[in-house]
Amino acid sequence: MAGVTGDRIALIGDTALEVIARDGMRGLTHRAVDRAAGLPAGSTSYYARTRLALLELAVARIVELDHVELDPPEDVAGFAEYIARFVHGAITAGRLRMIARYEFALEATRREELRAIYDRAGQALRVRAAEVLARVGSAEPERHARMLVTWCDGLIFDSVAGAGSKSPPSLAELTRSTRDLLAAILRHPAG
Are both 84 and 47 inside the same structural domain? Predict the structure, then answer.
């Protein structure tokens, strides 16, 4: 039974992300998720009684999906390829999830309860990036992690919702760019 419940929650979370990406935060309702997921009326509200609970479920789903992808190699070349694949996946197969993430980021600027959830997820990503950067030779892993995450965020935003969305970079271009960035970070320690 736990598997069925987990599958249902994942379906509701995935569908909530699709609804948010398609209709924005105002379009996210329990009914909209039920309809889009093909679930009986009231199914979503059974698992997420309030709108805040539904938003939390959707953010938790983003975190869960990102966590699955957070197991990078710990050598420079492998890490560069991993980052390039992550970004490429975000701008292709993960495009709707990224749009939903941007909606959440904006909503979190207005809702303190979402800010805490959103920030916790972002901090976990930065900590993991700093750990890997330390292992591959960064003299300032926390600072470099911030640079790397910010670079990825900007590149993903430009490719999904910005001026670069008409011609996003290829995997090969992303791999070259990531190698260049890591080489610059690791070659030139501060000071």
Answer: no
